[in-house]
Design goal:
- This protein is an alpha+beta fold.
- It is built from four helices and ten strands; from the N terminus they run βββαβαβββββαβα.
- The strands form three sheets. A four-stranded mixed sheet has the order 1-2-4-3, covered by helices on one side.
- The longest helix is centred in the C-terminal third of the chain and has 20 residues.
- The two termini are 26 Å apart.
- Keywords: Amino-acid biosynthesis, Cytoplasm, Histidine biosynthesis, Lyase.
Length: 199
């Protein structure tokens, strides 16, 4: 089996980000974005997707966390797409329901190469710690778009904002784990009746 590992670097006037992603890892995370809550979410993503993830991000946090959050999503998505390669043999579809105390979130993913995001999660607080809750959608949109994933994330119910956010990341991680998994019955073929995946 070819190693499904990618490392991507992206530098702009606003951020400087490097991501290394191993789709067949064991859930190890080494994450430093300068945003504590985002680090916490990405560590959970690695753990529950069983991907090994390294993130190094420097951004214009003296302004706010927007550029760093969005650009980390972009680079993680680019790394995921590169690691997937031609996508031969992958399961392609993934889904998960994640409960966290009073909260339940569902994520469904299709690694179709045709990106789309449905985001149904509402927060009653503007911030969790120092993290702006409106930025969660920005990360998921950036990740889905650059990974080539059709991703639906729906918080079905919940009241604790921390639980809602964390369950969104964990559900997406579990859906991603299922979607990128290799099915030996595919025998290295493309999981599409079209014979290809992409736009």
């Amino acid at each position: 089996m070819t190693n499904r590992i990618a490392e991507r670097h992206r530098k702009t006037k606003e951020t400087d980000i490097t991501v290394r992603l191993d789709l067949d890892g064991s859930g190890k995370a080494d994450v430093s974005t300068g945003i504590g809550f985002l680090d916490h979410m990405l560590e959970g993503f690695a753990k529950h997707s069983l991907c090994d993830l390294t993130v190094r991000a420097e951004g214009d946090l003296h302004i706010d966390g927007h550029h760093t959050t969005e650009d980390v999503g972009i680079v993680m998505g680019l790394a995921a797409a590169e690691a997937l390669g031609d996508m031969k043999g992958i399961t392609r579809f993934g889904h998960a329901y994640i409960p966290m105390d009073e909260t339940l979130t569902r994520a469904s993913m299709d690694l179709s190469g045709r990106p789309y995001l449905i985001w149904k999660a509402e927060f009653t607080r503007d911030k969790i710690g120092e993290f702006d809750t409106e930025l969660f959608k920005e990360w998921f949109h950036a990740f889905a778009t650059n990974a080539g994933a059709c991703l639906h994330v729906e918080n079905l119910y919940g009241t604790n904002n921390h639980h809602i956010a964390e369950s969104c990341f964990k559900a997406t991680a579990r859906a991603f784990k299922m979607a990128v998994s290799l099915d030996p019955r595919m025998a290295g073929s493309i999981p599409s009746t079209k014979g290809s995946l992409g736009s």
